[in-house]
Amino acid sequence: MNTISPIGVFDSGIGGLSVWKELSSALPGESMMYLADSAHAPYGTKSKKYITERSRVITSFLLDRGCKLIVVACNTATGAAITTLRREYEVPFIGVEPAVKPAALASKTGHIGVLATARTFKGEHFIRTKGMFAGAVEVHVQAGTGLVELIEAGLLKSVETHDLLEHYLRPMIESGIDQLVLGCTHYPFLIPMIRNILPVGVTIIDPAPAVARQTRKVLENFRGLNPGPDSPVHQFFTTGDPGPLELIIKQVSGNQPAEVIRTI
Ligand code: DGL
After folding, report:
1. Which residues of the chain register pLDDT less than 70?
2. Residue 56: which of 39, 25, 80, 34 has the closest Cα?
3. pLDDT digit string (tens) for 114-158?
4. By alpha-carbon position, which residue is closest to atom 8 of ligand 1?
5. So which residues are the catalytic ones?
């Protein structure tokens, strides 16, 4: 593995930037290429076949540009496509899965909530993980249908987003959850709103820090960790409108302007 090559990161849209942010602070020496497949978002309502095909196109795009490792910064694409990607390509892939295990271990009420896309709940990873903890806790699942579209449209503070979110969280709150797992990388952008809706004492679990730790571990195992160029290069691509991505990049990178290139 060539240490100076970039890490490739992709998602159905802007959500994976919540993972990119963790990666860039945990691995400050690494250059990265981020691709948002916003023209094809949301993935959560699409078929496994469709998501796998999009994941192949994006993986090939990132590998053609020299990426040494791919982070699938999307729970939905991880569940639908990562097994196929690992079989078809030689580079290591890191996926994102709803963090059921830490939530189950931390729960005192015995009730945890998972907010994710409908497709993620159908994925083999989620079904297996949920099964492993079924005896220990009750897992309350809720598909966040419509939230990704609102986030992609930049409506992070709108009344419409708030009302839909409250509608989804209310039944979980009434069931007595004390852990809420964010099973979609778009949702961390709604954390301020989620905190306002949840009672005090409910912990929100975002898997991004664990993904960054796992990426470091895999890079070390492959002797691919970049000890650090003075200024790592971050490139951003989108298949859709660059505007929303540019806005969120500014927000997560402390006002650093970024150029987003429209592609495939
Ligand atoms: N960020 C994706 C995920 O983590 C969103 C899926 C979608 O596009 O519906 O699942």
Report:
1. 229
2. 80
3. 999 999 999 988 999 999 987 889 999 999 999 999 999 989 999
4. 42
5. 74, 184
Q: What range does the domain containing 222 cover?
A: 7-96+209-262
Helix (H), strand (E) at residue 88: helix 75-88
| pTM for this model (two decimals) | 0.95
DSSP 3-state percent helix, strand, coil across the chain (nearest 5): 45, 15, 35
Work out the number of other CB atoms within 10 angstroms of the CB of residue 246. 17
Q: How far does residue 92's CA lie from ligand 1's centre (Å)?
A: 21
Q: Is residue 2 part of a domain?
A: no
Ligand 1 centroid from CA 16, angstroms: 8
Q: What is the pLDDT of residue 264?
A: 82
Specify the number of domains making up the chain.
Answer: 2
CATH number, domain of 108, equals: 3.40.50.1860
Cβ(14) to ligand 1 under 6 A?
A: no
**Judgement on whether residues 31 and 72 belong to the same structural domain of the protein:** yes
Please indicate, yes or no, whether residues 149 and 192 belong to a single structural domain of this protein.
yes
Ligand 1 neighbourhood includes 37 CB (under 6 angstroms): no
Q: Is 114 in the pocket of ligand 1 (CB under 6 A)?
A: no
